[in-house]
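Moderator note: this is an archived Q&A kept for reference. The question asked for a predicted structure of one protein chain; the sequence and the answer are reproduced below.
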Amino acid sequence: MRHKIGYKKLNRTSEHRKALIKNMLNSLIKYEQITTTLPKAKVLKPQADKIITLGKKDSLQNTKILVSKLQDIKSANKVKKTLAKRYEARKGGYTRIIKAGFRYGDKAPMAVIEFVDRDIQAKKVDIKKKEAPKKEENKPQPTA
């Protein structure tokens, strides 16, 4: 019998686990693909699917629930505006887990969790474009 087996604890306290899942959800929404350990990815997958389902139902209450779960208005807006539109016809299964070998240091099983039909350019959100080098004019040096 499977009594008192509700979810994976990931060897963390409840507050640490909630913060970990929230941060991973925000990163997954922002970049649409993250690399993490396999147990964390398996815990994150149902949470991400529930967030997308909440975003698809357009109501003020669901928006407030999204903001309270994600603690980030930018992520909540992306869920409501882009991800909900992208998965409008899909009834579930918004994420996939791809096994990615083992980590070098401790041989932990790694996995890539990503949105199905993801935007490839989302990974480059934080990368700043290089500016062209500015020409410095020949300015006379001040003499003291």
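Archived answer notes: Helices lie at 14-31, 38-56, 60-70, 73-86.
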